[in-house]
Structures are given as C-alpha cells and as structure tokens.
Structure of Integral membrane protein:
Amino acid sequence: MSRRLRSGLSAVLIALSCLLVPLGALSAWVAYGLADTGRYVTTVTPLAGDPDVREAIADTVGDAIVAQIRPGTDARLLSGMVVPFVHDAVRSFTQTAAFRTVWTEGNRAAHDAVLRALRQDDGARDQPVTVDLAPVAAHVKARLTEDNMPLADRIPVTHTEVALVPAEDLGRLRTGYHVLQLAGFWLPVGAVVFAASGIALAVHRRRAVTATALGTALGGALLALTVTVGRRLTLAGLPDDVSPPAAGAVYDALTATLRTTAWVLIALGLTAAALTWLVRRRAGRPHPPGPHPPSPRRRPRLPLRRRRRGSAAQSPAQPQQPTRVKA
C-alpha cells in the first residue's frame, strides 16, 4: 500500500472516530443512564430539596386540591382563606421527610411506567403514560385535618393522573428508544476501533495520535455545546403551566453526567495532544556533541640525523694511525 493511500485512509478513519465521540457519549447516556431506573431515581432524588421543584409541585398539587373542593363552596371563603391555606399546607408538606419518600417512590413508579410503554411491542393500542397524585393528596389532607383546617374533610382523595407521555408520541419515542439502545453500545466501540485503525495505518503515527487527541477534545466541546443548546430549546418549548426554573433544575440534574463526560473528553484530548507534541519535539531536537576522549600522548621522535649526530658525539674518538709520510 502506498504512503499516500495509507495517509488518506488514516485521515478518514480518524475523522470518523472523532465524529462518533459525541454521538457515542450521547447514546450511551440514554441507553445506560436514563434507561436505568436505579440510576434515574438516584439522580432525581436530590431534586426533592430544590426550591424551584418544591414550589412547582406545591402549585400543581394545591391547584388540584382546590379544584376538587371548589364545587359547592362559597367563592369568597374559597379565595380568601381556603386557597392560601391549602397552598401553604402543600408547601409545608414539601419540606418534610414524607414528601421525599413520596417523591422518590413516585419517580420510580413513573420511570417504570415509561419504560414499560417504550419496551412494549405487542401491537396493542398505545395508552398515555400517567402518574397518580393521590398519595400526595392523602398526605396533604391528613396535614390539614391535624391543623383543624375548615373543609379539610371535604377534600376527596381521588386518583388524579398527570400525563407523562401522550399516547400519540409513544410510537416515535419507542422507535428512537430502540435505536439508541443499539447505538449506545456500538457507537463508542466504533469510535475506538476507527481511532486505533487510523493510528495503525498512519505513516506518521505521532501526528495521527495528536490529530486523534485534538479531535476527541473537539468532540467533547461539541457535546457540551449540544447540552447547552438543548437546555435552551427545552425551556423555550415548555407549556404555560410548567415552571421554567423547575424544568431547568430537572434538566441540569439529568444531564450532569453528560456535562462531566464532555469535560473529561476535552481534558483527556488536550492532555494527550500536549504530551505527544512534547515527545515529538524532544525526539526531533539534535543532541549536543559529547566530549572527545583524550588521545594518548606520543613521545616525540627526534630526527634521524640528530640522533645519529648525538650517537656519534657520544662514541669515543678513535686514535688516528700515522701516515706513511710521518713514518
């Protein structure tokens, strides 16, 4: 395989991996976070102490109780004393431990009902998913009776059902739920496989690792942006009878895991990119030349003539023999 083809395939695989990062995180959050009753109840249980949520519940339950005792009651008495007293009693009830128990069990029952409706695939006619407010009304009636509230005994504890999911939306939601169940597992696996394959095929693997890390950080930023935009769109599309602060508190509690995942992806991506850049820079820096070992010292050699003269000078002089003339 040529180097150009390998580089092209590596870039495509890394781009797909970075694109699947936010999608995989979102689908895994739906499949393993929202679809799990235990985790859902653990997430929404602290909302029983949120002031906005308690105020919204007090208004909803108080209006339902007043609507039950309105027929046959003097309008001046109802508006002057009964309505404020009922709302105050419900608001006081939301600050008790009994309300926290009712809140937890009500959310558990509502979540189970929604999951049963989404997982139902037997061809039966869809029915709206509702939650019953009768337990809350019973606790409020008992509290009002203890306080000697007039007309408290006339409050009927009926099964007041609040629709959670309309019947006409169940088909679309059921299809999306099944798709997200599959995507919650395969999209994260696909992101990891594509990233590993892209790095393995790359000609310059350090550059491929840096690109993958930066793409992961970019996917985390895109996920955080999606959560923020989704919050604004959700609050903008609320009905008039739903409290925006309470809905915002519920949205923030449910998406806390997504926000944490987004920041973790950003931090891991930037850290991996920085480490790869530092390693690459250190590897490309030229090494300074080391000190040369000292060469062995050689004894200076005297010239040959000089040595001969010196040897001649040191040798004893031989006596000259007399010549024939002297003899």
Observations:
- The longest strand covers residues 161-165.
- Strands lie at 129-132, 161-165.
- The chain has a mean pLDDT of 78.
